[in-house]
Amino acid sequence: MKRLGLYVAAGALFACITSPVTATSITLTSSDGTTTYTVDLPDDVISLIGSNTTAIADTLEEESVTQSDLNTIASEVTNAYNSASSIVGVSNPYSTALNGLNDFTDVLVDVIPNTQGIQNVWASSWIGYILPKPNFGFGINAGVSSMDISALTDTAEALGMSVSAPNTLVFPTITADARVGGFFLPFDVGFVVSALDSSKLGLDSTLDPISFNYFTVGGDIRYCVWKMPIFKTRISVGAGLYHTEGTVEADDSSADAKLDFNSTTLSLSAQASAKFLFFTPFLGTRLMFSKTNVDWSVSGIRWTSIIGSTYSDSIAKAISYGLLPTSFSGGSSAGFFDNVRPVLYGGFAFNLLLLDVTFSGSYDFLAQIPSGAVSVRLSL
Question: CA torsion, points 91, 97, 98, 100, in degrees to nearest 10?
Answer without folding.
Answer: 120
